[in-house]
Design goal:
The chain is an alpha/beta fold and 380 residues long. The chain has helices at residues 16-22, 24-27, 38-57, 71-86, 101-112, 130-136, 159-168, 240-255, 257-278, 305-314, 334-338, 343-347, 360-379, and strands spanning 4-5, 65-68, 92-96, 116-120, 141-145, 173-176, 195-199, 210-214, 282-284, 295-300, 317-318, 349-353. It has 13 helices and 12 strands. The chain is globular.
Amino acid sequence: MKRIYFDYAATTPVLPEVVDSMNPYFTSEYGNASSFHEFGFRARKAIEDSREIVSKFLDTNPESIVFTSGGTESDNLAIFGTFLKNRDKNPHFITTSIEHPAVLNSCQFVEELGADVTYLPVSTEGLVDPLAVEAAITDQTVLISIMYANNEIGTVQPVKEIGQIATSHDIPFHTDAVQAMSSISIDVHANCINLLSASGHKLYAPKGVGIFFIQDSSTILPIMHGGPHEHGIRPSTENVPGIVGLATAIEIISSDMDREATRETELRDYIIDHVLAEIEGSSLNGSRTERLPGNMNFSFEGILGYDLVLVLDREGIAVSTGSACHSTSQKPSQVLHALGVCDALALGTIRASIGRQTTQEEADYFLEKLQDAIKELRAT
């Protein structure tokens, strides 16, 4: 059976060149980067070379890059680290109602610990109003945390405007860029970003490695305690193979990012146009224009998204009902609720996401099987 992967937003395949770059650090270059011998020195050099690659990609200095286990840990560092630094100041946080659970649940927990949190609403396209961000600022605001692009609906936020507002009020601005970084060139300084989270497995690198950019390490406290690894911000023996793989993946995707983004955008729009024109009772969730190149989120009247995922999987096509973190839940998406989508349509939703390996042939196969699957489900 033909197998087609339309779930790049959940995770990406590790590129062959990335695997090749990692292999020596499993077998021959296996030293602990903290060891004072040749094995350790070579491991340390691999990490620092990787840090240099990541810092150039974000247009910042290597000292501001911290390697973590992934986006969730990086988000927790931003939220909890800021709370711990300001816990005696009645801290106030600003975020949105459509953040990833790594941010939302962290914000809810610091509320339990005594912080105040403002959860800003979004438009029907999933966009937050920068003026609403500014209006929410108080004398106690210690962090603004708004994702670069939503993981379910793909809407790209007005990050630069929000960053400028945060800077004008001397408030650190954090963005979860996990979903955006594989297809958008991000300049942290041009966008006035002070903290940023990213994850390797959304960048064609392995799972279990991530990035935390922090412009000024004095603005947070560590949330784990141990050795002095990663500038004293993130203790634990470094995942050298993962870090090397992450840097290699960034080198690859940055070499043709604009061209690949254009290709994915054209293929995405081709699919969206055909779905909306040819499938009755279909609708697109999120912004049509301010959208990640590879993201499509559709609702279909008269079916359940969970059933559609299973029928498509039977045909060899992998899609999801939304965030992989909620893939086992059959409850309406909190993100779609925030957009004002009714329960019936929210439950009839799938997310289809494409990537570097997606072809025109696969897009046509998906469209054919999607129409067949919806007809089947509506007939039952």
